């Protein structure tokens, strides 16, 4: 390998040239030759270095952007993206014994409240509340940023009858998790919650905000929180760039009971549909 860490391409190899180039650029990033935030050489410069057409290098850049390794800033260039975001235990970190979770995140991520208004909700939010799509709900929209990129587009949806005349309807951050403010304002306690994760392509607005290509998949969370009577208190949404997001769940495995039915139904934890 040369001093630049690049071997060029092998025209006789079965692998396409853009994939050979991607493998070498990927290796340089993982070795730390190019650090997070560092700008790559221009496409013409890389094309000359590898002895290929500029279109071939563009295909390489596109592939590594979909993988989440690179980010292109219009009018500036292509840069190495930061580290992957770990979604540790999803929304559970907001509650109970993990109430310090937000303080831990604050050292790495900055949340920005962007809008508080009344709006008609997306179908999944209306369905969670059991209301018509035309119903006006209060929405608190936010972004979560690292030093170099937006890594989350989010929104919390609340009933107007729960928020009328309270700070929940103002463009105001509280310095504590939103659910604690909602509990204090409404007098209702969060007791259970359901998280549903789906993978899909981003909307045009999500792609622009997250600075990803329209064909880059995202992970989308629908978080529905209930009180002790199993009535919905809050419905929250969050969307993350899929290639840059790691989903980690940690849980205990129960000890089998001696009288357990070993011939029962399949594992209900995996639902295919």
Describe what this molecule looks like in 3D.
Helix content is 25%, strand content 26%. It is of the alpha+beta class and 273 residues long. The strands form 3 sheets. The protein has a 6-stranded antiparallel sheet with strand order 4-5-6-9-8-7. A hairpin with a 3-residue loop joins β1 and β2 (77-80). It is elongated. The termini are far apart. The relative contact order is 0.12. Mean pLDDT is 84; it is low at 97-104 and 268-273.
Summarize the structure.
By secondary structure, this protein is of the alpha+beta class. 25% of the residues lie in helices and 26% in strands. The termini are far apart.
Counting helices, strands and paired strands, the structural category is alpha+beta
Query: Mean pLDDT across all residues, rounded?
Result: 84
Oligomer: single chain
Widest beta sheet: strand line-up = 4-5-6-9-8-7
Helix-strand topology string = HHHEEEHEHEEHHEHEEE
Identify the overall geometry. elongated
Query: What is the number of helices?
Result: 8
Instruction: Give helix % range.
Output: 25-40%
Q: Beta-strand percentage?
A: 25-35%
Tell me the span between the first and last alpha carbons. 48 Å
| DSSP strand tally | 10
Topology readout:
Layout (H helix, E strand, L loop, with lengths): L16 H15 L11 H8 L3 H13 L3 E4 L3 E4 L4 E4 L12 H6 L3 E10 L3 H7 L7 E9 L4 E9 L1 H4 L14 H9 L5 E9 L3 H7 L7 E9 L5 E10 L3 E4 L25
Parallel strand pairs: 3-10
Antiparallel strand pairs: 1-2, 4-5, 5-6, 6-9, 7-8, 8-9
Helix pairs in contact: 1-3, 2-3
